[in-house]
Amino acid sequence: MQIPAIIMAGGKSKRFNFEKINSKYQEKSLLTIRGKSLIEYIIDAALACKKINKVIVAVSPYTPNTKSLITSRSQLIEIIDTPGAGYHSDILFIVKALKLGISITIVADLPLIKPEILDEIIEQYFILKKSALSVMADVKLFNQHGLTPTIIFKSENGQKNLVPLGINVIDGRFIDQPELNQAIFISKRVELIYNINTVDDYIQLKKLKNKIEK
């Protein structure tokens, strides 16, 4: 079964200090690695994913240049303007505005993501059979690669410290429920821990990307 993908590119990037780097735009999704913007890496992965049938990019008043880039890039991508009221509020807005059923949401700062990873996540959603799925990683995976996550949760049994990775699958029919019946998928994919929240994250990822592609 194929589902739509929503790439969330309307955030304010509050944690990213643009004054520390040379960037044409103060929009995190337009930061570049090897001449390609972060959001283009996500779009290319989503378009190549076997289990995704539509790519929707969510922008806001805070990301006008991202909207301009996407508009000029491809007719295969649908753009939706959100209020920019916050990540969860904007997802609620999108699901209702487009009357979506099951869809996958992806943050716009995971440039190492691959089509097969997205396929794996979508497959897990249908295996676990819950109304929502949140993708997380054990904090130990971050520690092994010298990374410091900004948000950490305890697992239900309290035995693991988990970090949300910015990818979720949700059935829009249940979006208004006070609490979703949610499954946690703990991924061991190293590519998913390299997201861009701070300037240090960006510098580390640029070094890694250069190393990989030499």
Notable traits:
25% strand, Spore Coat Polysaccharide Biosynthesis Protein SpsA, Chain A, 6 helices, 10 strands, alpha/beta, two-stranded antiparallel ribbon, 214 residues, 8-stranded mixed β-sheet
CATH architecture: Alpha-Beta Complex
Q: What is the CA-CA span between the terminal residues?
A: 37 Å
Query: What's the average pLDDT?
Result: 90
Number of strands: 10
Secondary-structure element series: EEEHEHEHEHEHEEEH
Q: Helicity range of the residues?
A: 25-40%
CATH superfamily: Spore Coat Polysaccharide Biosynthesis Protein SpsA, Chain A
| Helix and strand composition category | alpha/beta
Shape: globular
CATH topology: Spore Coat Polysaccharide Biosynthesis Protein SpsA, Chain A
Number of domains: 1
Contiguous uncertain segments of 5+ residues: none
- Strand content is 25-35%
C-alpha Rg (nearest Å): 17 Å
Largest sheet: 8 strands, mixed
Q: Helical segment tally?
A: 6
CATH class: Alpha Beta
In short:
Strands 1, 4, 5, 6, 7, 8, 9 and 10 form an 8-stranded mixed sheet that branches. Strands 2-3 form a two-stranded antiparallel sheet. A hairpin with a 6-residue loop joins strand 8 (153-154) and strand 9. The chain has a single domain (3-212), classed as Spore Coat Polysaccharide Biosynthesis Protein SpsA, Chain A.
Structure report:
- The chain is of the alpha/beta class.
- The protein has one domain (3-212): Spore Coat Polysaccharide Biosynthesis Protein SpsA, Chain A.
- The protein contains six helices and ten strands.
- Strands 1, 4, 5, 6, 7, 8, 9 and 10 form an eight-stranded mixed β-sheet that branches.
- The termini are far apart.
- The model has no long low-confidence stretch (mean pLDDT 90).
